[in-house]
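FW: tagging you since you asked about this chain on Friday. Here's the raw sequence from the shared folder, copied in full. Didn't touch anything.
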Amino acid sequence: MAKLLKKKSGFTLIELMIVVAILGILAALAIPAFIGYIRRSKTAEATGNLNSMFKSASAYFSQERAGRGSTSNTATFCVVAGDTMSNTNPGSTKSVYTASASANALGFQLADYVYFGYQIDRSTSACDVGDGSQAYTFVAQGDLDDDNVNSTFELATDVDNRTLRHSRGFYIVNEVE
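HL: got it, structure written out here
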């Protein structure tokens, strides 16, 4: 009995090395998954803001407008002209979004800092946009890890039955690059 009491308790060097190896393997698996999760969460900004751009454009499209001095009693459906990318050099850090004249006309504003640059792609402004015509393509581009490869999200719209509609989903290139 005295022999058992004299034995010191603790972990052997082998046991400690096994625990460190297991922790290293778990970290090697968890860190890339965590980085991917963070990048995917950043892309949620792009889809949310493109949906917001569409809603703003839809409200603008459905408002009754008339040309200066027009005496017509028919409603006109108008779209704004396109613009250039708002943030020409998106990176892994957030930056200020500066709305263009077209975005301001739609009422699209962002108060928060953003990872992506936003663009309204349309050749010209027009009223009385007919059914079947493509109205806009909303574009978001961002470089989430500063490797000069952009994540691109596009939401296309067209006019159907005098209503602005968007495509069924986003066209995405290099979602998490």
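FW: Helices lie at 2-6, 13-62, 101-106.
HL: agreed, and The mean pLDDT is 81.
FW: great, closing this out.
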